[in-house]
Amino acid sequence: MDYDPQEPGRDVSRIDLKAYLRRIGYTGVLRPSVEVLRRLHRAHLLTIPFENLDLLLGRKIKVGLADIESKLVQRRRGGYCFEQNLLFAAVLERLAFKVTRLSARGPMGSQQQSPVAYSTGHALLKVDVEGTSWLADVGVGDLGPLEPVPLSDGVEVQHAGWIYRMDRVFAGNAYSGWMLRHLRSDGWFDVYSFAETPFFQADFEDQNFIASHHPRSPFIDQLVIQRNGALRSSLVDLSLTTRRPNEPSKSRIVRAEELPVILADTFGLVLEDDEMSRLVTFARSKEVPRA
To answer: Which domains does the chain have, with CATH numbers?
Structure first.
């Protein structure tokens, strides 16, 4: 659906494009093309981490474009799916890409779970460029594709050694949408399913409220920070996991006092002293007493 300038929270003309490009370190051409989409998608994911720290600091997460831009671009923080993908959608629209905002459901066919994908509302994008529709998603942490994936039944892509597949899914005999799958050492993992029904700012406001308030949300009582790339890192409370393609994951339990260094060196996050002090205090509550 075309952009509606009257929709609240979505005035893409006001975004500071130069500041965003500096934030992700992008210096290439800016015409709407598949190659530019790929390069922007990769640069965003390699730079801006997935994180829920504001909720642990007692703050509300706001998904109006000005709030997202202030947090992720100007204050150089990360965010979760609504923040990440609504920012990326605005940037793409500012560059004359045709973008449709969509919503997905979490894993449906695997017993393996990710803290990023529990919720039934996950923001993602469909981008139409050069005659092809693409899934673009910079907001699914270390689980999602590093580059866009074409919406084509059975297509497989490989990004820095990570393999993904897009499949049509059906309800009875009727086509109902798409399933994004990720190849892991134990087989195909169903990341999420989605239809091509457009979603709007008000929809994401509602979904964000649930994600940031519902007692079963994984984001309100545990620390979740993730980073995509060839090497993928995830910190859930005090469990730090790293993954490489075709290798077993490696995990270790860290101490609360290690958080400042881990956040800076692994995830590129530097917080104010009082913020970090509060996070360390929160992390101490997650430590298991040593015998």
So the answer is: 12-284 (3.30.2140.20)
